[in-house]
Amino acid sequence: MKFSLSTFLVFLSFTLFAGKPERPLNELYRPQFHFTPERNWHNDPNGLVYYDGEYHLFYQYNPNGLEWGYMHWGHAVSNDLVHWEHLPIALTPDESSTDKAHCTEFSGCGLVDEKNLTGLQQGPEKTILLFYTSFECGQRLAYSTDRGRTWQKYAKNPIIPFDSLDDARDPKVFWHEKSQQYVMVLYRKPDGNEKAKGISFYTSKNLTDWEFKNHIPGFFECPDLVELPVNRRPDDKRWVLFDGDGSYMIGNFDGERFTPETAKMKGDYGRNYYATQTWSNIPEKDGRVIQIAWMRDGEFPGMPFKGQMTFPCELSLRKYIDGIYLLRKPVQEIELLHEKGNVWENKNLIPGIKQNIVSKVKGDCLHIIADFSIKSSDNFGFMVRTGKKATGTEILYNVKSKTLSCLGASAVVEPIDGKLKLEILLDRSSIEIFANDGKTVMSSCFSPEDGAEDLILYTNGGELLVNKMEIYPLKSIWEPKEK
User: Domains in the chain, please, with CATH?
Assistant: First the structure.
């Protein structure tokens, strides 16, 4: 085969462009410890499943550009929930669709077919199943028999036919032990009734034939249903039913019907939180329920990608005087990214005295864990990503109104015995704040000024006691792991 000079130049330019930079995925607003695709648009997390030492993360993905549409399922794997390896696209639109929406791959879930109920297993590896919505083409099934490296569509799709009235989408499937069957929760709008839109419950013995059981209104998109112990007691459990925006309802579930014990409660008070989902098939010896979400409507000016995930979190239920609440905290694997940090204990801050005890902390990626006694302070907090020309972003607690505020969002946070705990994940384009062990959470995106990497801790109107505070700079997940 002969190559012309122009062909050689095109080949050379492609080679230079495709070559990996010295620090891959290191752009100005590229999150360094939150998941992002290498390029293009992404939204909802999908197909979260653990198998053979790997956490699989699929996600809504447009391979054609930075806007929503032409949905495929992107794919990544991790063995620690922190460092992610990008894999080839897993699912492409059905019926060879090239339309922006028709028969494209909307959201869904993942599951391991432990007992080969589908009969799809071909060798020693168990079959991984992906349940998903093919827009205007019904609820469908795809599967892999090689640890998730290649995917095939189920020959008898759709497993639930398309109904033009009900707007059904976003299936989440799990095994219900007491009733010895699989359950699917599915967003629907029965008979096109806007007032009835919510979550439908289906059951199956074989993962392919599904029977409708009942419906609960008052929810919209991306449902999830998980069981959690209260105060970590195995003899006291509740079910938590999630809405697309992360809000939740606590109650009981008998395999067919959810009976609420609480009103719906807000799950996140930030500006950018949506499409929550939990991992399935987490090993029993681990026992955690681990959740992730899409940081909806985040802006990433000048970046080759659009969108990021929240950091994976562990869920738990805790009983308080006024009822049971969901807690959400970063998974412990965040510590794998800790650089050498600083610790302060029993430091009394007095307003008007220049004593910014964190003045030596610099960085655009930080993990802050702080326990404060409020004492006589009127308000206190942090200024993050400040600099010589940048005022930075404020994380403020107003003692009188008991409100925590950041980036235009706020939430009421009651002190506990005169104390407030804050855990903060600061990345290049997001701030996640977990107050009082994760009872109140705020997840928001931002676009700080380049080079502004200072940190300020302050109090106004009165004294503030830092009982204990730890701050750790965080390593990039895109750099090779240390052995």
Answer: 36-332 (2.115.10.20), 338-473 (2.60.120.560)
